Amino acid sequence: MHVQPTGPAPAPSDQVAFHRTELGVILGLYGRMVAAGEWRDYGISCLRDVAVFSIFRRTAEYPIYRVEKRPKLQARQGQYAVIGMDGRILKRGHDLRTVLRVLERKLIRAVDD
Description:
The chain is of the alpha+beta class. It has one domain. Helices cover about 30% and strands about 25% of the residues. It contains 2 helices and 5 strands, in the order αβββββα. Strands 1-2-3-4-5 form a 5-stranded antiparallel β-sheet. α1 runs parallel beside α2. The model is unreliable at about 1-5 and about 5-10 (pLDDT under 50).
């Protein structure tokens, strides 16, 4: 029997990041809100314990919303959260689409105005 050397095991990532499918869901909502004239810019931060998608009404101001992913909370309240400008958690849960619904309601209001 011949065993192939596999080399060193890959190091675990020291940053939390959004997966491509998660970004697709977030950017879909972001695009609709940009088209409605509500949002103008975004930023993504990948840190040790959290990945943050920050949403801005104008460039270079404080974010009006933050979508956070905290994998350590997956077994408890859920790893996804939408946080308002004042730091309040608007919605937390295990399913990203469900959590983002709190922002989609704002899109419905923006179209109705």
